[in-house]
Amino acid sequence: MANGPHNQDKTTTSPTRGGSPVTYDQLSDASHDLGHASGNDLVSSVSDSQLLATESSVAHPDPHNTTRYHCVASGTVPNIAPDGPPQNLYSTFDDMDFNSNLDWILKDVSGEDMLSPADLFGFQECPEGQLNLPVSAASAAMLSARHSDAGDNDHEDVNGHDASSAVALGGLLTPQPQEMGDPGDPWPLDTPRPTQSHMALPALGNDNQDFRTFARFFSVTPVCDRTWHALRKCLMLPFEHNSIQTLNLDHFPSKEKLDHCIDLYFAYFHPTLDLVHQPTFDPGRDLVLTLAVVSVGACYSDLQGAKAFSIVLSELVRRLLIFVAEQDRRFVRTGPYLTAQLLQGTHGYCTGSERLFELSESCRSTLLHQARCMGLFRFEAPAPIQMDQTLEEMWREWIEAEKLRRLGWVLYMYDASVAYLLNNRPFLSIGDINLNLPASAEEWAAETAQAWSALRPTRTYHTSLPLRPLIRTLFDGTPNAVERITDEGHRFLVVLTLVRMLWSLKENRSSPLNDLIMPAPFDDGRADLLQALDSMSVSIVAASRSHTKTEIDRLVHRMRLIHVAHIYGAGDLMNWLYPYLRHGLEAENAAVRMKRWGSEDSQRTREVAYHSAQILGLIRNFPNSMPLESYLIFHAGVVLSCVAPLLPSSTLSSQSIPLQIDQLDPGDNSISRRHLHWVKNGGNQCISIFGVRSLCTPTSRQDILDQTAALLKRQKVWGIARNLEKVVLSLRGRDRDTAL
């Protein structure tokens, strides 16, 4: 993630077989996602139109890689006045580098330091729960890339002369190592020699608690003495031969505390990303993975200092991953390494630390590149059946194959989530995914080989369909296509892929092709995609009577994603939303575009208001503390606050029955029928949500932001909720000051 308001090219380099570096630039056209031969026949109304989208950006082939392109830098787009040409407003808000720069979320608008600086040395916890780090980000950036071996005489050159008076090469200054840096130093690469830095792992809880009496959710293999010492040894590896940095592990948690964090991981985080095989998980097998699991599990703990401990441990795990990868490059293409990196990335996006957030975003492309090199997304050949295997051997072999299959799918979900949560371009395309769908959650959770065999009495190996043929059944007239998708995990992947396609179509619609050719020479087919998504809707209130809590959490996640799809399918709404919220130079133009967007289609405005309110209603009634829940609250709340002033004012009296659009349907369509009638036809009704009597009053925007902040305040697990809450409250204060 970029560190400033200016756009920066975000590229990663990877060595080719010949050793020369190759730059991978993300294509801005949706054909990269939908135009592949393997995926362009999913939706006829969409795929036929995407063939022309390959020219949506000016590009030239990369001579080292025929499948990627270097984007040609375009001229700087001037700031557009509010009364400027409306057709030019698109080019202001569609730069993904601008949208992905989320420093305005991770910075306190009041100027207070609410996040940890880049350097994590000398961790101490303040009474307020913040992290008191004496080393600033600026000083951390001054760490020397070149160290002096000249001893203490750092102000003398190699000949014994004073470096300050040395002149060489026609008057050019000669760079010399120095202890203190000068802001005006003309040699920016010759940084001061750093002093030794000390890093300490914060304590997790206090030593007075007896964790042996703590009740546990699951009977996972406990951490033994040998594993405990091995985990400490792993964390020390990057520091053993480092003369600049030291690590203090005096407060490394006890075995019981580590077991407590692992247990919390499987109880609360694992149902969201059921990636690790819980029945056979051994904390002593893959130590790096165990440390990543502990880091995530600590977020769910109410022990004193748990949040600070989790952040520092995540930083230590990151350094360990880098160290091990440098020692043996084969390690980066193993399942445990990618799984640990994936957990690290999810943790970094949601913990609230600016440093970890940026590392998660910058490492995402590398993580997916390594997964590609492992072949995680390739077509799976049927596994040969060996008749002489025992049931235990068959189960163990199936677990190893399913681990990699699930890892590929979770990486796809992880990458696609940045599209609908951060309005950022994913690195993977839909055409990249060629593996079979994962097994059911029940099979994956089977505790023994006998339990696993009982769930599949007539099968030896998993034989589910790939993703694309399954999606195609939603559009080719297959009878009861949705009912044929019986597994909830498969349904979620279908919904996620359709949302991913909608995001690509949104990006393609705002491409330069629309400015060059009028009208646009394609029909993007968003209506067909939204119709397919709506066919997979379910009443959560009705389902809650016949499903377990874990099943309800998965259904709620699917429904929230369906509502998010309608927001991203509403034109260029999400393109101008971030510039408007940042309140920078682009905010005035974004406000003009917002009013124009609302006047273009009143039904679309009502639809966005309805689906935003439904997301808030789902989270209010069925919260589950999933890692990305805070982002959904934030986007639903701020979108609703932006579109509420665009709704027509009601002339009904206060005695009229309001239409509460965040109310959930009980399952008989009595409420949803009224909601959808209003979305389609409008009408003179008093529209409300929980805590806001009317969305059509001058104060409704501030009331909506208040309710959004209240929901974010309920999010106790993930620190990003505190950052988003401050942004929401700053928006409310900005509106109040404007009104005054």
Provide an overview of this structure.
This protein has 29 helices and ten strands. Mean pLDDT is about 75; it is low at about 1-100 and about 110-175. Helix content is about 45%, strand content about 5%. Among the domains are: about 255-420, no CATH class; about 535-740, no CATH class. Helix 26 runs parallel beside helix 29. The protein has a two-stranded antiparallel sheet with strand order 1-2. Pfam families: Fungal_trans. Keywords: Metal-binding, Nucleus, Transcription, Transcription regulation, Zinc. GO terms for molecular function: DNA binding; zinc ion binding.
Q: Indicate the mean pLDDT.
A: 75
CA radius of gyration is 27 Å
> Which sequence of strands runs across the widest sheet?
1-2
Helix content: 40-55%
Number of helices: 29
Instruction: State the distance separating the first and last CA atoms.
Output: 36 Å
Low-pLDDT regions: 1-100, 108-175
Query: Which shape, going by the Cα principal axes?
Result: globular
Number of strands: 10
Strand content: under 5%
Question: Quick one: biggest sheet?
Answer: 2 strands, antiparallel
Which class best fits the helix and strand makeup? mainly alpha
Which secondary structure elements does this structure contain, and how are they paired or packed?
Elements: E1 12-15, E2 21-24, H1 31-34, H2 44-47, E3 59-62, E4 65-71, H3 90-93, H4 96-100, H5 103-106, H6 137-140, E5 167-168, E6 172-173, E7 197-200, H7 225-236, E8 245-248, H8 255-269, H9 287-298, H10 306-327, H11 335-350, H12 354-374, H13 391-422, H14 441-444, H15 449-454, H16 467-472, H17 481-484, H18 488-509, H19 513-516, H20 526-534, H21 540-543, H22 549-568, H23 573-582, H24 587-600, H25 602-621, H26 629-643, E9 659-660, H27 670-681, E10 687-688, H28 700-714, H29 720-739
Parallel strand pairs: 7-8, 9-10
Antiparallel strand pairs: 1-2, 3-4, 5-6
Protein name: Xylanolytic transcriptional activator regulatory domain-containing protein
Region (Disordered): 1-48
InterPro entries: XnlR_reg_dom
